[in-house]
Design a protein that fits this description.
The protein is of the alpha/beta class. The protein has two domains: about 65-235, Dna Topoisomerase Vi A Subunit, Chain: A, domain 2, CATH 3.40.1360.10; about 255-324, Arc Repressor Mutant, subunit A (Orthogonal Bundle). About 45% of the residues lie in helices and about 10% in strands. The strands form three sheets. A four-stranded parallel beta sheet has the order 2-1-3-4, with helices on both faces. It has a three-stranded antiparallel beta sheet with strand order 7-9-8. Helix 10 packs across helix 11 and helix 11 crosses helix 12.
């Protein structure tokens, strides 16, 4: 349950005045309150949802365990593809965040998550409601913590920076678990992103890789060491060169954005404002880059005077830009 779902949940309120009354409370013997309003801060709401989800997890642990193998993947869209394509039974767990950009941390403590969440909220226009990040991240950590030791774990990884960072983070989260961990990659096909695979490809890749040797203790240690190096890095943007993850300046794509806008201007009879979504779409036709990070850099280039702006930058589809 997310903070938004809890906020919108149709629940009834009851007033209890004494500890004895609380111990003997049964809702059928009480009349719910009417015409009352409570205002709860988003942070407090998130804490409430966190406690509710913890109780739910404890209850589920008593009654059920995951059936079939566990599949870990680096995005929610990729998780959707795996759920459709993999043979049942299975459980798919996704990282609810793109670790390509923004400050990193070990991200297992709320304080570390909050630093990252605040940076994302201040810079990235992904329209995610404040408070949802903490709820989704905590749910992911619970699911991983709840994996039984006897269940095999498969890590899916494409040839792209988000998934390369993701497997290092996931191996770190699995920590001291004794499970066999298998790495499934898409090196032998042209598609670089797990989310771009169709169900038949997923099924075929899994069949070809399900019996590979699990990661050795040395391989697991190497991935964890590489995760710690990423955590210690000061850069807030990371790229993959086909061999390693490299931290770069956050203005790394600025010249590409400007060149794309100039090219689109040259195709016009006279220079007019360009929809930001059109500029980003043109870039994505040639390179796979997170569109939300590109939109952040477009806004930065409007603030420093590179672009004129028309409209309100609520999202990449709500405003237009023109080179000065």
């Amino acid at each position: 349950m997310t903070a938004t779902e809890f906020k919108n949940y149709d629940c009834k309120m009851y007033e209890i005045n004494t500890p004895t009354e609380f111990e003997e409370f049964h809702h059928e013997n009480y009349r719910p309150l009417r015409s009352r309003t409570w205002f709860i801060k988003q942070e407090i709401m998130s804490d409430i949802v966190e406690k509710i989800n913890s109780f739910i997890q404890e209850s589920l642990q008593l009654h059920q365990r995951s059936k079939g193998p566990i599949h870990l993947v680096s995005s929610e869209s990729a998780a959707g593809s795996l759920k459709v394509g993999l043979p049942k039974p299975h459980t798919v767990i996704a990282i609810p965040d793109n670790l390509t950009y923004g400050p990193l941390g070990k991200l297992v403590e709320r304080a570390e998550q909050k630093i990252r969440e605040e940076w994302l909220f201040d810079h990235i226009n992904d329209e995610q409601e404040e408070g949802n990040y903490a709820s989704k991240f905590s749910n992911m950590l619970r699911q991983i913590d709840d994996i039984a030791d006897s269940i095999p774990i498969y890590l899916w990884c494409g040839n792209n920076v988000a998934e390369q960072i993701g497997i290092r983070f996931m191996v770190y989260l699995l920590g001291e678990k004794k499970n066999a961990i298998y790495l499934i990659t898409e090196d032998k096909i042209a598609i670089s992103y797990t989310s771009h695979l169709h169900s038949e490809q997923i099924k075929k890749i899994f069949e070809q890789n399900k019996d590979v040797l699990p990661l050795s203790s040395n391989e697991r240690s190497t991935y964890i060491e590489e995760w710690f190096k990423l955590v210690d890095s000061k850069e807030v943007l990371r790229i993959w060169n086909g061999r390693e993850i490299i931290g770069v300046s956050e203005n790394y794509y600025d010249s590409l954005i400007q060149a794309t806008a100039e090219m689109l201007h040259n195709s016009q009879s006279e220079k007019e404002f360009l929809p930001v979504g059109e500029v980003i779409a043109e870039i994505l036709n040639k390179e796979i880059i997170d569109p939300f990070f590109l939109e952040y850099r477009v806004r930065h280039l409007t603030y420093d005077g590179t672009f004129k702006i028309k409209g309100i930058p609520k999202s990449m589809h709500s405003y237009k830009i023109k080179l000065q």
